[in-house]
Amino acid sequence: MTASPDQTAPQPKPFAARDWVKILAKYREPNQMRSSFELGATAVPFVLLWGLAWWSLSISLWLTLAISILNAAFLLRLFTIQHDCGHGAFFSNRGVNDWTGRVLGVLTLTPYDVWKRTHSIHHSSSGNLGRRGMGDIHTKTVAEYQQLSAYDRFMYRVYRHPVTLFVFGPSYLFLLQNRLPLGLTQHARYWISAMLTNAAQIIALAVIWYFGGVLPILLIFLPSTILAATIGVWLFYVQHQFENTKWSADEEWQLHDAALHGSSYYVLPPVLQWFSANIGIHHVHHLYSRIPFYRLPEVLHDHTDLAQSNRMTIRESLANVHLNLWDEKTKRLLSFSQVRALYG
After folding, report:
1. Which of 123, 331, 336, 311 has its CA nearest to residue 246?
2. Distance between CA 321 and CA 164 in Å, rounded?
3. pLDDT above 70 coverage of the chain, percent
4. Which of 56, 75, 112, 172 is the most exposed place for a label (fewest CB within 10 A)?
5. How far is the C-alpha of 97 from the C-alpha of 24, rounded, in Å?
């Protein structure tokens, strides 16, 4: 009996992580008209909904709050556009990217130049156990946790608790921490970025207060900002905090392996994918950050290997909130209870 063609034909070898860089380079060029359209399709509804929410204050405070909650989705999308600008991916011209990002940074409460630098550090060190601490969610190894004092273990548990990360954390990060260029305080450029952004925000809030009093701030500005921040923090969390993510010691770490295997593909319904500007296709983004967000689905369509890599549904992602420690022995992110069961 002869073997079937499927049995005898050599199987193609999967691409190594670094090989994807050359393959993905053809997707890097933004379409200027498309980028302008995406910006307008996000910024215009955001402004209109702000105006509608303000108008509705005279009708129903609950209606105002509902409109503000809806507007959080457009604010989140503005942040992801700012994110693309920071990577030089949204427009071909660097100056246009930077000034678009700076203006959006006033709306998203994120000093653009500060964030651009810290996010660049995140991309250049993600998954590196020797370079943790900036632009990421702090993650200890099992061995490090076991060596902590009782007090430090308690504080790490408080930090990793879902209430801290997703209830208090987003408000602290965007309303307070972003006001200072933490980690970059020795550079005047980043102080200027933070202070000018702060000044623009204070002026905007003062104008709102002058014409509308405190209600627009309490029922429009704060709800939309805090909700957008919370969703953004959640998206950032699930993009790297999952069981089979990849962390390596500094001497073993490799940029492209960490990008491909340490970032998830968060599979979202189309409407959520639109509002998050495809940021869930995060493994491709980390492999080649210069690809505009609207070209990321094109990559998955053309390369099924990437479309099947590190897939995570919303239901699957919920379990990730219990994963807290990287186990260098099993190469998995584990929960505190799993570590206790394995190691006592």
Report:
1. 331
2. 11
3. 96
4. 172
5. 21
Q: Please tell me whether residue 140 adopts helix, strand or coil conformation.
A: strand
Whose tokens are 């910006």? That residue is: 39
Reply yes or no on whether the pLDDT at 307 is more than 60. yes
| β pairing state of 140-141 and 325-327 | parallel
pTM here is 0.93
Cβ atoms of 173 and 231 within 8 Å: the answer is: no
Phi, psi of 281 (to 5 degrees): -80, 60
Determine the pLDDT at residue 2: 42
Query: What is the 8-class DSSP label of residue 135?
Result: S
* pLDDT per residue as tens digits for the range 196-240: 999 999 999 999 999 999 999 999 999 999 999 999 999 999 999
For residue 214, the one-letter residue type is V
How far lies 95's CA from each of 14, 86, 92, 118, 119, in Å?
38, 11, 9, 19, 18
Helix axes 112-125, 61-86, angle to 10 degrees: 60
Model pLDDT, residue 146: 96
